[in-house]
């Protein structure tokens, strides 16, 4: 898991797909329309969405990990907390869905590692980072708008 300010993205020399993702993110703002947007075919694309934040114990809270894609997540309006778990430490909830590139896990306890994401902050989640996004940052839930850039792992140049 990487958590940083968007202006620091170049500190991570992960290749041209990483550069494409952040060039796309740089053009977004609170008025960006919700939907799915191709950036580089099926290898790099973005989803802009809105929803109400929740608690870890809410029935619709989702704990997931991906194998083929890295997530770069950034709030555009409001804030959310993202809980991070080592994927190998969790009990799977069903089989890995290869077509949707998602493995769900059972929630057992709050995560030791958590990040609050506000506009201007990004979180990069790698395949070993099981994550529960959409969590409230304060005592009340709030409606947020965010973007998730999905970047194919084979397009990321890792050290």
Describe this structure in words.
With 159 residues, the chain is mainly beta. It has a single domain (2-155), classed as Jelly Rolls (Sandwich). Helix content is 7%, strand content 42%. The chain has one helix spanning 16-26; strands at 2-5, 35-40, 44-52, 64-65, 69-77, 80-86, 103-104, 113-117, 121-125, 129-135, 143-152. It has a six-stranded antiparallel sheet. β2 (35-40) and β3 (44-52) form a beta hairpin. The mean pLDDT is 96.
Topology (elements, then pairings):
Blueprint: E1 2-5, H1 16-26, E2 35-40, E3 44-52, E4 64-65, E5 69-77, E6 80-86, E7 103-104, E8 113-117, E9 121-125, E10 129-135, E11 143-152
Strands, count: 11
- Count the DSSP helices: 1
Report the uncertain regions.
none
Report the structural category: mainly beta
Widest sheet, order of strands: 1-9-5-11-3-2
CATH topology type:
Jelly Rolls
List keywords for this structure.
three-stranded antiparallel sheet, mainly beta, Jelly Rolls, about 160 residues, about 5% helix, 11 strands, 1 helix
Concise synopsis of the structure shown:
7% of the residues lie in helices and 42% in strands. It has 159 residues and is mainly beta.
């Amino acid at each position: 898991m990487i958590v940083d300010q968007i202006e620091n993205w170049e500190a991570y020399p992960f290749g041209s797909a990483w550069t494409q993702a952040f060039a796309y993110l740089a053009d977004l703002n609170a008025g960006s329309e919700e939907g799915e947007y191709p950036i580089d075919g099926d290898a790099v694309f973005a989803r802009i969405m809105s929803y109400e934040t929740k608690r870890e114990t809410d029935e619709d809270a989702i704990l997931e990990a991906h194998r083929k894609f890295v997530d770069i997540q950034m709030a555009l309006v409001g804030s959310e907390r993202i809980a991070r778990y080592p994927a190998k430490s969790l009990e799977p909830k069903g089989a890995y869905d290869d077509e949707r590139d998602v493995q769900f896990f059972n929630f057992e306890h709050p995560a030791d590692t958590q990040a609050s994401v506000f506009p201007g902050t990004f979180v990069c989640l790698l395949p070993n980072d099981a994550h529960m996004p959409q969590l409230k940052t304060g005592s009340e839930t709030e409606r947020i708008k965010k973007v998730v850039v999905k970047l194919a792992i084979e397009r990321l140049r890792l050290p």
